[in-house]
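hi!! sorry for the late reply, been swamped w classes. u asked for the two structures so here they r. pasted raw, havent cleaned anything up. first the sequence of the first protein and right below it the tokens
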Amino acid sequence: MVNYRLVHILSLCVAANGYIALLPSHHVSLKTSRRSTQLHSLYENHPHWHWPDDSSSSENYSNEPIFYNDFDLIAIEQESDQFWESPSAKQLASSIPANLRPTKTPDTTISDFLNTRISQVTKDSRQLLKNWRNGHTKSYGAFTINEQYLLNKEENKEDDPDSIPFDWVRRVDIGQYPRVACGSAHGSIFVADTTSKQVMGAARAVHYSEHSDEYTNALDEQLRQYIYGEYDGGGVLDVAMFGKNIVASAGREGGVKLFKLLEDGNQAELVPQGDVQALIPLITGALPIVVTCMKFDSYGRLYLGCCDGFLRIVTFPQDFVFGDGADLDSQDLHVTVVPHWSEQAPSPILSLDVSEELEMVVTSHVNGNVCLYSMKEHEDVYNMASGRREHVGVIGVWNPFTADESYARSVTFTSKESLHGHKHAVVVGGGNGEVWVNDIYPEYEESNTGEVFVDEYVQKFEPNHVGPVISLCSRPEGLIVSVGHDGMLRMTQTWIGLKNPKKATPWPLYGLGGYKKWIGSICVDDEGKRLVSDGMDDAVIVHDFSAYEKKEEKQ
């Protein structure tokens, strides 16, 4: 006599929507290419875990975790379809919620569900892209950095010499949304949650500012003009955030300071972690290297654009990057200086961007150059700086500002799906208000010529910005957001990978106004739903392009 047993299979159908289907089936055999793992004890007390006794079996069911297979199901073969017509099976099925009851063809049910889910995700993605292109967004001030100042003012403490002064936002970056970091005109660093609209932690007056004589200003006057033009709001030069709690910032005194947000229940503190020592000269009295721009990648590596024209990469210990502790020894930091293109003298870097898909970094320079670096760890490429094949180095140089000798103020990567695959480009904004885009072709690396930029694919945005293009960011499908000292955020659609790009020049979509001329940075979150910026005095602004979609769903 066959000893029937009930085998419970937990199938993680689609993690994207958090749906978990618990599928019981009778006497099934699994063909799999992956070994089983143990079900977590979280399900021990599940209300439907206590299955009724089976009189045909001498064994009792327990609440102990059992084994299941979570991936790579190749086939599920039912050995007895007639079992589900038996009285015992019907009694068993009645104790299971209707949405969790098995079918005779679970593979078909799962397939249908997956297809439905894919269709819904595709629809949502298209609607989100449409919102971006049409300017359908909910815009609001996410938080103010003067929360403590306003509280003191209500309590009549603003005249206290030790009270916190009114401050202005200078530079902003997104970590793991809704976490955002920003700097200030008084040299302070803040981490906030844009959902709760509250500052979680602050490190005050940690950088040079005109309001404090604690630090020495190492920023050259000419370089200051390149960075800020006629509108210098003072304070922090740049800020970068990784994950929920790691922040790096650069000030006018030079070097880079590191911070970590430590949380304990409802309490949080932004704890200083020291400086990147490799940027501080050993000669007494010498000023640290000024860092003008920075960005983290998804592995926690920090890329620095410096005033000496060199790109640097800071690698942190993994336990610091992905752990909760705050024990960082500056001696554990590894700093790599990337070789420079040797045909010209190094020119100060003003902006940079990182493409992990291409394993590339792009920088913009005072002399108008746009330099493309390869960061492939397992493949050598032609390095224009050394003339040899190496895994890190300059593989392409492009300068669209040779006519009027303008400087390249800002730069970003962009990408778009096309009939010929996933195509990429570099967009650069100049000190003269111009914005240019040029397709890049990674396969050109193998030619040993370094020609990743192709002149016939260069296109210019129209119209120009008024004043320098301070910041650029991009969203997939070729959407570019640019901002200048005219206080206008412009959305432009680019067309990448076309065989004849002259037939489809960049198409201006719309602008988002109301900003002050001191706007300094814009960025898009990893989900591609929100645009975050400074430029509104003491507040960080969020444009949520998914909010319009949610509003329609409620109607």
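now the second protein. again sequence first, tokens right under
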Amino acid sequence: MIGRPPRSTLSSSSAASDVYKRQTTSSSTSCQRLRGPGNDAEMTPSETWRQINLPGPTNIDPSVKQHHKLLHGLLTGSTTVLEILGSDMHSLCGPDAATNLFKAAQTGGSVTHIRVDHHALGQSKTTASLNKPYEALVLLLASLKTLEFLQVVGISDHDRLMNVLTATAKSSSQLIHLELSCAPRDDGAPASCALGQAMALVLRSQPNLARLSLSVPPISAHSLQPWLQVALTMPKLHHVGICGKAVTAGVGALLNQALASAPSRLDSLPLSQLNLSHEEVTQLGAAIQHCTRLTNLELVDVGTLAGNQSLAASLSAHSFEQLKIEGSCLGSDVMVTSAAVKSLQLDGSVLDLSRNRMRDAGVLVLAEALGHKTDLVKFSLKLRDNLLTANSLSYLCLGLEPVNGALAELDLSDNSLGVLGAQVIADWAVSSWKSQAGRSLILRNTSLGTAGALVIAAAFHGSKHVSASQIVSPLIQLDLSLNYLGPDGCGALGGVWVSMLVIESCGITDQDLGQLADSLLSGPGGIAEIKLNCNPIGSPGLSQLMTLVEEWGEHHTDTKCPKFELAQSRCHAEQLDELDAALTLAHTTSSCD
């Protein structure tokens, strides 16, 4: 009941993600018979643990129970997903934890998904102990026959990436999803042609590959050409992502030439940090026109796009489900902004124009373009970090009037909106989203303060005298993270009607949480889930939540107690388990009633 979400998630459009969701990380507790690597003699799990220097199944500290469970599952072959993300495992289980997991996975031989980052791999080339994870990973990749999904993020140098590529090419696995990222070389030199050829070799050995993402900064046309031409002729590949600062000319021309010469099946093309010149952006625009099936395009920090006629014409010729133009200095450019709005699919599209320094003038251009797109059925709009103010929001709200009913999500994070901006948004939301369910409002890091939180809470406040079945709450998500709320702000938010309330990294103390708990008990009970991650909440605050759970049924007969997420708080794992058990019991009792 207390959510502990993974630090990252698979893309919903990945062909491998459906497989991933069907996998479980549960491990068998029975003592299955195993065969060790290179040894025909049967061994029990305990014997195998000793062989690869793993802890035995008894006398395990509670803090490493999950690690032990994963080890056992990998060894017995009952666990098919190996995910090592974040630094927690090293502090709890020692520097050899990742190496041991890779060895266990090689022994079990049934892993289908691997996701690791630099915390698991280490970052030093000179320390022998930090070479061990790479060596174990390379041996694992070369031996697996079942691998479908491989994501290795944060490889420390190009030589190690070459080893990973070589092992992947030798593997008899049939990958569906491959994502690799590597740190830049110390001397700043671009990736070598040999690295590109190694990547091409991997692609030739993986005919079933559907999604490919590669980040090897800096990049050059010479390092891209060998593998890009192979990739675009692969029969099942529909997603190609390229990230890395281009340090030589010709990348835009290469993309244009490769996409024009190969029968493109791409429907997704994320490009980031390419640092293209104006001429190369023009060539990129011509390249995009060749991708007739393209529905997802991401251009993040690829260069200055404002005023580029080729790109604008290419955007207008497509119909995008997701279009992301971020960090491209659009400002108040009419041509590209209008083309971006024009290119949106009518139903379910996402337009992300974050980090473009739009200011008031740019918002006016966007508002006018949206005013002409009156046939939109449903769309999301993301305008993070665009130097927006309360005046900007006034212009935006006027422009949104013709499409208010179609706007499903509005993300204004990382803009200094303040209480005046909060008032503009609140007034607009109340008038525009009235009696319309399924909306999301994201206001992370917007300098709301307590006063702004009170304004937003008042706009979506419910009534305890109205039955929950009669309420049509416009919001499924309200995200006010990274804003100081204070006791009064927390107290006010307990009375809103929203499926998910996200108030992470808001400096919420035990005292603030007490105000929220009291408000939840006395309020309408319209919140299903509250995310309180990364707040300094300790034992006193958790005790107040326990009291809330115990007394919920006395105050609310037709709604369930909210679920809570408390990751990276000051609470101990045992305390969170107690709250989890109390919530489970409360929800079970409520269901029975």
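hope this helps!! also noticed smth abt the second:
The first helix runs from residue 15 to 22.
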